[in-house]
Each structure stands twice: as C-alpha cells, then as structure tokens.
Amino acid sequence: MALHDLSAWRHEHAFDAGNRAGERRTWIVVAITAVTMVAEIAGGWITGSMALLADGWHMGTHVAALAMAGIAYALARRWSRDRRFAFGTWKIEVLGAFSSALVLAIVALAMAVESVLRLVTPQPIAFGAALAVAVVGLVVNVVSAFVLAGKGSDHGHHHGHGHAHDDGPAHDHDHHHHRGDDHHHADGHGDLNLRAAYVHVLTDAFTSVLAIVALSAGMMGGWAWLDPAMGIVGAGVIAWWAWGLLTQSARVLLDREMDTPVAAAVRHAIESDGDAEIADLHVWRVGRARHACIVTIVAQEPLTPDGYRERLAGIASLAHVSVEVNRCPHENCP
Fold it and tell me: pLDDT tens, 195-214?
C-alpha cells in the first residue's frame, strides 16, 4: 500500500491554550486561604474559641473548592496533547467549574438549614470573637479577590488549513487555532473555572459582610436574631450564584450551542446565495472562544468546499470546520 505524506492535512486539537496566569493566581489564593485556615483552627484550639474553629473549618471547604479549580487547570494542561481527547482538554476546566458550583450549592443549603435551626432554637453568641473572625475573613477574601481578578497576558498564533475530495460528496476540514486574550469574547462564558474560584471567594466575602452587620447590630442593639436571618439571606444569594454557574457550565458540557449566534451566523453565511441549504448542522464549543462545526450542504449548483469555507471565514470563533457538499438533482430540490 502506498504511503502518503498527510502532514499538510493534520493539525492539533488543543483549541484552547489554557490560562496559565489564572492557574497561578488560583494556587496563590489556595495558599492564602490554607494559611488562614490553619491559623484559625490553631487559634481556636489554643483559645477555646468555637467561632475561630468553625470559621477555620469553613475555610477548609473553600480550600478544597479552590484546589479543585487549580487541579482542573493542571490536568487540562498535562493532557492537552493527548489524542484520546477528540477536541482537546478544555472541558476539564469546565467540569471543574461545574463541580465548584455543586460545592457552592451544598454550602448554601447547609447555611440555610443551620440558620433556620438557630432562628428556631437561638444559641448564645460570643459577639466580640465572632466579629473579629468575620473581619479577618473579609480581609482575606478581599485580598484573594484582587489576586484572582489580576490581569494576565498570553501570546498566540493562528493556524489553518483545508482540503477537499472530489470523488463523491465533497468534504472540507478547516482548522484555525487562536491563542491569546480573546477568550473574553466567548458569548459571556470566559474562563468558567477561574470564575468559579472567584465566586467562591466573593460569596465568602459577602457572607463576612453580612456577618459583620448582623454581629455589630447584635452587640450594640441585642438583635441576636439578625445573625441567623442574615445567614438565610446569604444562603439565598450563594444559591443564586451557584445556579448561574451550574447552568453556564452545564450548557457547555452538554454541547447546548445550537441556539447561539454562532450557529445562526453559519446558517446565514452558507444559505446567503438562495441556492445552498443546510441539511445538517452541528456546532459546539471546544474552547473559551472557539467552536467546532460540522455542516452538510445541499445545492443545485454547489460550490467547492473551499468556496463555502470562504463564506465561513468571517466567523472568527470557528476553530474546526468540516464541510460536506452534495449536489441535489433539480427534480428533487424544493
């Protein structure tokens, strides 16, 4: 059997270059949170403060969730050239975001249950110690939020190729590999893994603010009921944020992209001549701002696959395109 040089037709399927800056920032925040956790648990053990101990173990849940985001980055980077992943490893990061959102939802549920129990059966509160813990927690989370929100820079390149077969249905595969800062143009998705870490920090800062308000009011006005009431409010807000993150990450994991502007743009570009019609179309996300597309075209006077590829060239987010072209006999065409 004759051997052919296929190098001109082959390409990498690592469509997303990852986010090394985001990964570094995530691990920095893991370290900050872990140090705070150890300090609070040690301080609570030495002083006998239940408030310090409780917040220390609470910090532990955030260490676990933030570490989940860091591990997702590391695995996606480690396996980025593994050919077992048909369209790269970017969805490992999305899976990390989905898992973090589940942890947030569990935290919200636990907060709500505990707050309701404390409303029904009030517990004595050491306002001074609890207020100090809340202030420390707020400072740590504000610092962490600034670390995660820091700007990173990436540099990249563009690569593309196409080919066609004229014996039978014509096919074309087009691959464009972009790297860089254009991930924030991904229809609002951005880096979901980094966003999950940021939401964890933000929710903790938010609950610290609520706790400071409630504890201050309890200390000065004797409104002890305000502390569990604020817990219920915080649980509701955290649940709302968790739901938003769950739905966004689940949409990507389930390839629910056919109602996006990208799919509509593909259909408009192909069918703009009034002759070509799309018989089958699949669009799904393979990176933060990258989509793959498989399209089957039927026309009375079809163009070459390169001709249809040129029509799709203006859709910047298309990173991998496969085109099948079929001629429709006049008597069978609408």
Answer: 999 988 888 888 888 888 87
pLDDT beyond 90 at 115: no
CA distance 202 to 66: 12
Residue 296, token pair as written in the block: 């089957």
Spatial separation of the C-alpha atoms in residues 106 and 102, rounded to whole Å: 6
Look at the pTM and tell me if it is higher than 0.85.
Answer: no
Q: What is the pLDDT of residues 144-183, one digit of tens each?
A: 999 988 754 333 333 333 333 333 444 555 544 333 333 3
Phi/psi region, residue 301 (left: phi>0; alpha: psi -120 to 50; beta: rest), is beta
Instruction: List the CATH number of the domain containing 63.
Output: 1.20.1510.10
- The answer to whether 292 and 262 are in contact (CB under 8 A) is no
Q: Is residue 324 part of a domain?
A: no
3-state helix, strand, coil in the chain (%, to 5): 60, 10, 30
Sign of CA dihedral 74, 80, 84, 90: positive
In a domain, 33, yes or no: yes
Cβ 290 vs Cβ 15: under 8 Å: yes
CA–CA distance, 120 with 97 (Å, rounded to integer): 35
The residue that leads in pLDDT, 134 or 334, is 134
Count of other CB atoms within 10 angstroms of residue 93: 29
CA distance 103 to 91: 18
- The answer to the question of residue 225 being in a domain is yes
The verdict on residue 7 lying in a domain is no
Residue found by looking up tokens 């004797």 in the block: 222
The CA-atom distances, in angstroms, between 314 and each of 63, 117, 170, 178, 319 are 43, 58, 21, 14, 12
Between helix 226-253 and helix 90-120 the angle, nearest 10°, is: 160
Backbone angles phi, psi at 326, to 5 degrees: -130, 135
Q: Supply the range of the domain harboring residue 210.
A: 20-155+189-253
Number of domains in the chain: 1
Summarize pLDDT for 31-55 with one digit per residue, the tens. Answer: 998 888 888 778 667 756 555 666 7
